[in-house]
């Protein structure tokens, strides 16, 4: 497995919460949005979404679609907003530390 796959797995929760913080979104839409920046498969996203719902970081609701059956939308919770802030802080700190390490020698 390439290292970039592990990086993606570690950052995917933060990316998903970032996008649903801005606007409620459905699964396929989230995949498309993340793919604009980080290549992922649709299958990679759904386990993350299930985990986020299980941990109460987001909720699901159904909404009618003009293009067919209703869709499951994901909405961030207050707990999810707090978790996202923690993830972003930890991510920024980690990236800074890795960059310092790379500059050290």
UniProtKB/TrEMBL annotation:
Signal peptide: none annotated. InterPro entries: Metal_resp_DNA-bind_regulator, Tscrpt_reg_PadR_N, WH-like_DNA-bd_sf, WH_DNA-bd_sf. It holds the Pfam family PadR. Residues 16-85 form the Transcription regulator PadR N-terminal domain. This is PadR family transcriptional regulator. It comes from Enterococcus termitis.
């Amino acid at each position: 497995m390439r290292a970039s796959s592990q990086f993606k797995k570690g950052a995917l929760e933060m990316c998903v919460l970032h996008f649903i913080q801005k606007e409620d979104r459905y699964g396929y839409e989230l995949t498309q949005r993340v793919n604009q920046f980080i290549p992922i498969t649709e299958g990679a996203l759904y386990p993350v979404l299930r985990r986020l719902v299980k941990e109460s970081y987001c909720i699901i609701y159904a909404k009618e679609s003009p293009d067919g059956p209703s869709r499951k939308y994901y909405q961030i919770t207050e707990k999810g907003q707090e978790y996202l802030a923690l993830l972003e802080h930890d991510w920024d700190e980690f990236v800074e530390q890795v960059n310092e390490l790379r500059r050290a020698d």
